[in-house]
Amino acid sequence: MTFEGKYYNGQSSKGMPAHIALLPDGLRIDYCADEACGSVHWELAGIHQSEFNDATTLLRFGKFPQQSISVVDKGFKEALQQQYRGAAFLKSGYNSVLNLGFSGIALMALGLLGLLVAFVIWGVPALADRVAMHFPQSYERTLGEQLYTKMLQGYQVNEEKTAALNDYLHALDTDLDYPITAAVVSSEEVNAFAIPGGYVVVYEGILDKMEHHEELAALMGHELAHIQNRHSLRAMARSLSYYMLASVLFGDVSGVAAVLVDNASALRNLEYSRSLELEADREGLELLRRNELNQQGIVLLMERLHMGSEYEMLAFVSTHPNTGDRIKVLNELIGERNQPYKKNPELQRHWEKLTR
């Protein structure tokens, strides 16, 4: 049984008139165009379904570049089904769906809807997190500067204490990949937060609660760990992932940065997972060790904040959860690697300027 159609060799977009014969083990295609004639044999296993409709049948064969044939004959499809009953290339995905019936189709639709919901709830934030992890450092620094400037617009900066805090930080061995810029803002709120790119904002309220400069070193070590490991950038990206996705979908890539900057105020209330908080705690403790300071500074800081008033707990501890468990972990870490500590007159001098 032979049918007329067109043959495409996969190397040229021009179709060649062809005669297609249905053989027991496959199709034989005899073609001829511009005095160039030939014959090819398609084994059944290599044939792929492309399209079946009332008038035209399109079939493909092999790997890239794929050959294909086009036959405008209603009888061709019927002949294929009769000759090669049950062959894989004759199975229609569309018909398979229809064969599921109403309940099957409904279950499939619910499954697809579930996948979509799962992607929106978990996939989009996870994707934003991965994007944030691969930001170029120079771009992160520029973004951080914009966030820092935007954030400080709503506060009164204590210039004297800001200078003392930056002097304190510069006297510390922080081992940070970013230049550090910090500001002390006039507020009774007990809080501090990290901004991507090497920026930190500290409230006077939290400084007033401290009694030893090692507590400040521990706080700075904790916040700088959030910067070094991009916790702040990732947390912002996750919390604003839907706005960022909309910017990308509408082709406004620059809008991603705009979304982050416009939501700079979210930095003060960023919440980190338990694992990220513990990671920042460990690195805060490591900063104390590196500078040969009293490791109990970080425990004293946690205990002081943990025992604060309900308002203070709301301002700081609520965004740094599981404080009691973290104190326990820190004490265990200190016990595992206890070391003598030294007084540091330079840090003490900058600390006194901060607290007078």
UniProtKB/TrEMBL annotation:
Q: Where is the Peptidase M48 domain?
A: 177-333
Q: Which residues cross the membrane?
A: 100-124, 240-261
Q: Which GO terms describe its cellular component?
A: membrane
Respond yes or no to whether keyword Zinc is given for this record. yes
Q: What is one GO biological process annotated to this record? A: proteolysis involved in protein catabolic process
UniProt KW Chloroplast keyword:
no
Pfam families, per this entry? Peptidase_M48
Q: Which UniProt keywords apply?
A: Hydrolase, Membrane, Metal-binding, Metalloprotease, Protease, Transmembrane, Transmembrane helix, Zinc
Q: According to the record, how does the cofactor bind?
A: Binds 1 zinc ion per subunit.
Report the cofactors.
Zn(2+)
Q: Name one GO molecular function term.
A: metal ion binding
Superkingdom of origin organism: Bacteria
Query: CDD domains from the entry?
Result: M48C_Oma1_like
Q: Which family does it belong to?
A: Belongs to the peptidase M48 family.
- Which PANTHER family has this protein been placed in? METALLOENDOPEPTIDASE OMA1, METALLOENDOPEPTIDASE OMA1, MITOCHONDRIAL
Tell me what this protein is called.
Answer: Peptidase M48-like protein
Organism, by scientific name, is Pontibacter virosus
Taxonomic lineage: Bacteria, Pseudomonadati, Bacteroidota, Cytophagia, Cytophagales
